Amino acid sequence: MNHASLLNRESFVELGARARVHALLDPGTLRELAGPFDQLVSPWLERQGVVPQADDGVVVAKGRIDGHPAVVLAIEGAFQGGSLGEVGGAKIAGALELAAQDNRRGVPTRAVILFETGGVRLQEANLGLAAIAEIHAGIVDLRRYQPVVGVIAGTVGCFGGMSIAAGLCSCLVVTREARLGLNGPAVIEQEAGIAEYDSRDRPFIWSFTGGEQRIATGLADRYVEDDSDAIRTTVREVLAQGVPAVHRSERYAHYLQRLAEYDPARQPEPQTVRTIYTHGATP
């Protein structure tokens, strides 16, 4: 990207959840559901000395994308690290369920999920886990009718149970700043030690879980610059492609075989991971 393009672009990563939704939906079509004025706060955070947020860190909006009915679900990474609790998780799961019902009634509603989350909120562990399981079920139900597109832009990334949600999407869009993994760097370091995984080593972290690596290993589908126009265009393109013939999650046998070819006694390297995922084990 040249200097003129850098000056003219609008960073998607720097936008908050609500502004990201505005950037994707057709102008004048946005209608927010269960918004901050509805005061849907978590009943658990204040009891533990945490100031709640009126929308519980999740923005749900109906509108149109390229003229077609759509619902956009955005997680606010700046609130509690984008963690999912009872209320925020229910908002996402409920919206996906309603979109699936729309399709069964003849209204072809598709969905876009903007992931910016560390996974389940520890203060609401079991309730959050149940909500994330409902989100998984909602994605699988809706993707039978219309594509469910996931976008991971940055800076929090997508981890924990919500990384499974990302893997269930019909198409996953990532930027260079994105990160995707089941366990976050700090969690791995805590459990395995800094010698195994240094969560402060940013080049190391991105070399394994960053957007470029996830594209190279086939765990994400589209790679875009951190530019709102580029992400909007890409989302429209992948929605127009419709439901894929085979979803990535249905190819589990392929990925199990790839994992079986890895020797856990050897310290992994980013290129080794790429080779295994794309060509099988090295001789």
Automatic annotation (TrEMBL):
Alphabetized Pfam families for the sequence: Carboxyl_trans
Gene Ontology process terms (BP): carbohydrate metabolic process; fatty acid biosynthetic process; malonyl-CoA biosynthetic process
PROSITE patterns: COA_CT_NTER (PS50980)
Record has Transferase as a keyword: yes
SUPFAM superfamilies hit by this protein: ClpP/crotonase
Keywords for this protein: Transferase
GO molecular function, one term: carboxy-lyase activity
Domain CoA carboxyltransferase N-terminal: 1-255
Coiled-coil region: none
Signal peptide feature range: none
Protein name per the record: Malonate decarboxylase beta subunit
Species name: Cupriavidus basilensis
